[in-house]
Amino acid sequence: QLDRLNNKELEKEKDERKDGQNELARSLSKKLVFKQKVPPHVFEALALEDRDNPPRPAAACSNLMKEEEEEDIEANKVKGSLKGIGLMLKTRPNLGKHATEADSKEKKGSTKKKWAKVEIGLGPEHADLSVLLNGNLATPADLGSHDIPLQWREELKRVSCMNSIIGAKRGVVGAELGLSDTNNDSSRRIVILKAGNSGAQEVFSGLIGERLGIRCPRIRVVENSSEREAIEGSIFDLLVNDVYYQTNTLGYLQQSKQLLLMEAGTHRVTLDKLAESNKTISIDMAFELGVLIPFDMIIANGDRLPLKSVWDRPGNAHNFLFPIDGKDYDSALLAIDQVCTHPRNERLLDNYLAAIADTLSSTESLRSALEVTIAFLGHASNTELLPGIEEALLAGVREGVQRVARLDREDLAAVVNQVSEMGSTDAWRENLHDNINLDIMCDIIDICKKCPFNAVNIEC
């Protein structure tokens, strides 16, 4: 009987060992399949990370299975992230750097210097784009040109990678260029990188804003070129120590063949941050906010200021920036993220044009429509509005109406042609022509010309 018990215990122990071996085999099999789908440099970076953070000693045999399970979970997370954004990271050669060149640099002992740079690149200051934009010495970078591009590989120091993959700022990356890694580097320049999914609409809207005397960020379009490779390659190198942010940041920027290089709004705050900066909406600011309203009317941009009957929306406090720190700008406001999207539905279009005509039909009608605008400005800024804000808004709208009334179809067509030539793909041109309707814009110009705020009465 004792022998039978011993035999049962031996068989049980043997079965447990066999189950453990099978589980380990399955785990290794999963990893092999996963490794075939992920570029080797990802595991390179993970291995270096593990080397910097070695596991604590433990009872090796008893913890082996637990560690393998944890690694499986982590591998599945990474795999899920890659699958979720529907792309695979480009390998080093495709990012503008030959593999042999990269390997030879690492073999020559440049690893320490490279990792020192990575430590700077992954500092906590990268969590928020506003940190880069409002640094003491930060200035907007010149966007360069196709013939003389920015020196990305030599000068990229920091990127706002952590808030570029979530929420409203997804696909928007702040990049800091400079000649040294010191905090007092007076050569610091900031440029915004943005995926060009709706790039044609945004470029068109910005150029229309410029024609109306509204301050909008300058934009340059970059497609597949050595400059695009240098941009992606320098971001890849800077974030090589963090596979998650590296993969997702590059992933969003690679969604479109077009990449937008945009002028950065440095030393500025959004409406909801005015109180924190001990600022309030001045009379000049209110006037410029009024000028924005006819501009938004002609491009059908309801994602900024609410206006009763025209845009019955809560308003967006983040699509215009106010200057801070006493900077002497030529304009109090910087209008950002404007995207022209004209209604395609005939009923919606008729209602939209009728609402604009009714709002601009008289001072009383406009004053009534602006009630929700004023309420939004007070609530979103968390400040007490100055006396005279309402009259400044009214005056700004009148000025904006007169500027729109001076446009004509030839002006609009010239901007369409200019934007069309900036991108080479069918998707770029479709994005432009599917969302921008010159007939609608001319209808709004006619309304502005005929309304009582403008003396001109000429058909578009």
Question: What do you see in this structure?
Answer:
- With 460 residues, this protein is of the alpha+beta class.
- Helix content is 52%, strand content 8%.
- It contains 18 helices and nine strands.
- The strands form two sheets. Strands 1, 2, 3, 4, 5 and 6 form a six-stranded mixed sheet that branches.
- The longest helix is centred in the N-terminal third of the chain and has 36 residues, at 2-37.
- The N and C termini lie far apart (106 Å).
- Mean pLDDT is 77; it is low at 28-64, 78-122 and 456-460.
Short characterization:
It contains 18 helices and nine strands. By secondary structure, the chain is of the alpha+beta class.
For this entry, give a set of tags.
single chain, 460 residues, six-stranded mixed sheet, 52% helix, 8% strand, disordered C terminus
What's the total helix number? 18
- What is the global morphology? elongated
Strand content: 5-15%
The biggest beta sheet is recorded as: 6 strands, mixed
Provide the succession of SSEs: HHHHHHEHEEEHEHHEEHEEHHHHHHH
Low-confidence stretches: 28-64, 78-122, 456-460
Distance between the termini: 106 Å
Q: Give helix % range.
A: 40-55%
Average pLDDT taken over every residue = 77
Radius of gyration: 28 Å
Give the class from helix and strand content and strand pairing: alpha+beta
Beta strand count: 9
